[in-house]
Amino acid sequence: MSILDYVIMLVFTIVIIVAGLSFGKSGSNMKSYFAAGGAVPWQISSLSLFMSFFSAGTFVVWGSLAYQYGFVAVAIQLTMCVAGLVVGLYIAPAWQKSHSLTAAEFVSKRLGIKIQKFYSYLILLISLAYTGAFLYPVAKIINVSTGFSIEACVIVLGVLIIIYTVVGGLWAVMITDVLQFVVLTAAVIIVVPLAFDRVGGVDQFLASVPESFFSPVNKEYSWLFLLAFGIYNGIFIGGNWAYVQRYTSVDTPKAASKVGYLFAGLYLISPFIWMLPPMIYRVLNPNLSGLQNEGAYLMMCKEVLPKGMIGLMLGGMLFATGSSVNTTLNLAAAVFTNDLYKSVKPETKPKKLMFIAKLATTIFGVLTILVALLVPLAGGIVEIVLSVGAVTGCSLYGPPIWALFSKRHTGKSILWCTVLGLSINVYFKFFYPLNTGESLSRTEEMLAGAVIPLILLISYELWARSKNKIAVDYTRYKRQLDATVGSVESEGEEEPSESSESQNAFGLKVLARTMGIISVIFIVLAFVSGNALDVTLLIGVLIGVAALIINRRSKNEIKISG
């Protein structure tokens, strides 16, 4: 990397941090800090959802698989498109109709406080494993590009992410997600044609890859795996407590559906573009193996991007991958503060609750850093993301989703479906190999994780239907929901809060200004680097135009709130 790359990366880092910190005053109460006021534009919420989900694995997890197996990585990600459609049609609007600030709040209302506390503690524990796993790829990217030790990268980046997440809350998380989407989409448009040119063109690329490189499946990742992974994604995207905030932070069920639909649309297109750099790098350097595959994506970028652009894309990669971390940190703090601490001390004043929320974010951030340092000992990021997801995803998030629609399941039945599902999957993952000397294949592991919880949920549903049982928990919840629908805007607000229009206007204003700065960076780089001048200049101009449009909308929001 050149000095210019380091300078650009530093400038981009400062832009992101300042953008996040600018929301320090807007997160003055629980609803604004954890739900961004409850009426976020659905486009922003959806882009934030996309980046939070996309960034966790694109560069390292799916990039590694794209380098090894080619189109298999694209096929795997297309299951996320189907999952997004299902979420948009059914699950996202159901969450919004629950009128709950967090998923934990819904669990408390629908299934009872004891069940909610069980889920809260369990999800906080598993969230630490996920966020640690998500922080590791960020450090891996810097490690590959700069040579700095991966331990130092984990610590420094973890601290930066903690700072702006603590100060700005959910608005800071979402706006920085959108900025990263803009930068990385622009950068990959530049990378792909340069990468093809580097290996002699598209025809030469097609002629040089392994024979099975464009097969959508292989022995390890079969059609049955894709089916199971699709089920898992639908449940994970629809039920992960961090992602639920994207559905509850918009103002209508229709807007929540649009969050899912845009997510699906992005995953219909993006895998075909985003997986090309590591696939092309297979032709340029076919000798990577083991954990080296995790660096294939960035290695391709370093090969072809001009000076300065490498630093910009690296900065975008860092904070995009980090968006999964800040999303989960905000969720963990929300669950701890709103659903655990507040339930024990309901008389706590709003100002102290905000202090507890920010302290919780900091503590979970520090624990995340410690977990990330242990990732290499667990076999690498691919093993953690797929195995932890298979064992826990559907068992943990499936039952609460089922409770959104079922009037027959009780708090106890939902709890037992979770406990039994987790227990059976943990047995097959860890104890079955010890007893038999054989391990489940990747497909069998994912299929068991997806199907077993569904079998348990359906079995109880059919039994309760045969007995014509309606859960007392559901009757109580429905009565409470009907009674509070008319006053949902003021529910739980003990302190004066900013209007959602005011928060939206400020958020759009920050987004417009930072996009304006990014536009200038692209335009300057177009002339400084010389390589791919026309494309880089055009992208810079388009980002600038988008910034002007967003700025105009922010002024309209100000007029409405005024």
UniProtKB/TrEMBL annotation:
Q: Which residues cross the membrane?
A: 6-23, 44-65, 71-92, 118-136, 148-171, 178-196, 221-243, 255-276, 309-336, 356-378, 384-405, 414-434, 446-463, 510-529, 535-551
Task: Output a single Gene Ontology CC term carried by this record.
Answer: plasma membrane
Q: Where is the signal peptide?
A: none
Q: What's its membrane topology?
A: Multi-pass membrane protein
PROSITE patterns in UniProt: NA_SOLUT_SYMP_1 (PS00456), NA_SOLUT_SYMP_3 (PS50283)
Q: State the UniProt keywords alphabetically.
A: Cell membrane, Glycoprotein, Ion transport, Membrane, Sodium, Sodium transport, Transmembrane, Transmembrane helix, Transport
Can the keyword Glycoprotein be found in this entry's annotation?
yes
Q: Where in the cell is it found?
A: Cell membrane
Q: What name has this protein been given in UniProt?
A: Putative sodium-coupled permease
What organism does the record attribute this protein to? Arcticibacter svalbardensis MN12-7
